[in-house]
Design brief:
It contains 19 helices and no strands. The protein is an all-alpha fold.
Length: 359
């Protein structure tokens, strides 16, 4: 008996909860480590923090993110992905609270201490939200939706453009001495997500009395046989982590995925201050971010679309910028995320996908 697909969007109530938790994890990653920097770094600069140092931290965070992904990949093999996901989100909440103290400490005249607190909060939250959103949640969702993985991950990754569209406006509300409240708010959300994942989420739907793909006719015997075949294959597979790291074609794939992510992060973290320098007003910049945040949706649903078609009265130079921004942010964020669940798992080496995604 073969497993037949059900309606692609029929994820089931229990599966939908898992998807929503993944969506929130992606939102938190983008909001804390990229989109909010439009506001937080200039505000901290006004309070006396060295902004050159703050802008340079993204490079260090990226390296730490790579190392953290490898570490959590190993831990995931020892524990369960859902438990590690819960740990990552709960710890994010705790360190977001620590991060929130930066402005207050700076106002207290302790510049060095404020910089240390910022670095600790940023680095730890970067690593934890990265692995929580892109490694651990994807692993759980892949287990829950073996044939609907593309649909489920597509919904989950909508958290990235939604953050791009809303975080700068949200963070602007807290601009000033009360900036720490922004981190407190996201820290509370992270704690709630982590606690729900800890209490509710399981690595496999069978552990929750649900069905893979929410397919009530799912053939567990066939799936078990396929799983055992995969395990046997892994015992002799040539695709070890060392082999992955020394394979030129794998590096080409990883680099192309990474470039998209780097481009989108670089643009989003500098969007607000750079356009303020050019003389644009904040409401106009927020409108740009709102449009850019929907880049993935526009690209997928409308194809190549010009901004003048959407906002014919917008200044011509802004519309040209956003035509480019659609491509960079849309393809940057989308191509930097979706290949981890699609190309890596289904095209290159299907049974070794966990090792590839780990790297």
């Amino acid at each position: 008996m073969e497993n037949k697909k059900t309606n692609a969007l029929n994820l089931g109530p229990k599966g939908l909860v898992i998807v929503i938790l993944g969506f929130l994890s992606c939102y938190l990653y983008s909001a804390l480590t990229s989109d909010s920097l439009n506001v937080t770094i200039p505000v901290l600069g006004e309070l006396g923090v060295n902004t050159d140092i703050l802008y340079s931290l993204s490079t260090i965070a990226t390296i730490l993110g790579i190392l953290g992904s490898i570490l959590f990949g190993k831990l995931m093999a020892m524990k369960t992905a859902s438990k590690m996901w819960a740990f990552a989100m709960i710890a994010t909440g705790i360190f977001a609270f620590i991060w929130s103290r930066t402005a207050g400490i700076q106002l207290g005249g302790k510049a060095q201490a404020a910089l240390v607190v910022y670095c600790v909060g940023y680095f730890v939250c970067y690593v934890l939200t990265l692995v929580g959103a892109m490694l651990l949640s994807y692993q759980v969702i892949g287990n829950w939706f073996p044939t609907k993985r593309g649909v489920a991950i597509g919904i989950v990754t909508a958290g990235y453009p939604l953050s791009a569209a809303t975080t700068t406006s949200l963070c602007s509300v807290f601009a000033g001495p009360g900036l720490g409240n922004f981190y407190v708010l996201l820290g509370v959300i992270a704690l709630i997500v982590g606690i729900i994942v800890l209490v509710y989420a399981k690595d496999f739907p069978e552990e929750k009395g649900a069905y893979p793909d929410n397919n009530h006719n799912y053939d567990f015997e066939a799936a078990k046989k396929k799983f055992e075949q995969s395990m046997e294959y892994l015992k002799t597979s040539k695709w070890t982590i060392k082999r992955c790291l020394t394979c030129g074609r794998m590096w080409i794939m990883w680099v192309t995925v990474g470039i998209g992510g780097f481009l989108s992060m670089g643009i989003m973290s500098n969007f607000m201050p750079k356009f303020l320098e050019q003389g644009y007003q904040q409401p106009e910049i927020l409108l740009m971010l709102l449009i850019a945040g929907g880049a993935v949706v526009f690209i997928l649903t409308r194809g190549s679309i010009g901004v003048q078609e959407l906002l014919p009265n917008m200044r011509e130079d802004v519309s040209r910028l956003l035509d480019v921004d659609y491509s960079v942010l849309g393809f940057g964020r989308y191509s930097g995320i979706r290949p981890q669940s699609d190309e890596h798992s289904d095209i290159i080496i299907k049974n070794d996908s966990a090792r590839v995604n780990l790297i």
